[in-house]
Amino acid sequence: MKSITDKINNAIQRGLLSIRKEPPQSVSRWSNNNFFLSAESSYISGRWESYPYQAPILDMIGNDGIREIDILKSARIGYSKMLLACIGYFQEHKKRNQAIWLPTDASAVTFSKTQIDTMLRDVPSVRAMFKNSYDKKCARNTQNLKIFDNGTTLRILGGTAAKNYREISVDCAYLDELASFEPDIEAEGNPALLANKRTAGSVFPKLVCGSTPKIAGTCLITERHEKNVIKLRFYIPCPHCDKLHPLEWKTMQWEKDDPESVLHHCQHCGAGYNQSQFLSVWEKGRYQSDDGIYYHEGFFYDSDDSVIETPLTVGIHIWTAYSPMQTWSQIVREWLSCYKDPILLRTFINTTLGEADKEETESVDPDTFRGRAEEYERFSSKAVCLTMGVDVQPDRLEFEIVAWNANEESWSVDYQILWGDTIDSFEVWDELKEWLIENYKNDSDDALPISMALIDSGFSATTVYKCVERLGLNFVYSCKGQAGKRPVVEHEKERKRRMLKARKKGGHPIIVGVDEAKSIIYRRMRMVQEGAGYMHTPKNRDEEWYNQMTIEQLETKYQRGFAVQRWIKPNGGRNEALDCRVYAYAAFKMTNGKYRSVANSVAPRQIKRRVRQK
Question: What pTM was computed for the model?
Answer without folding.
Answer: 0.72
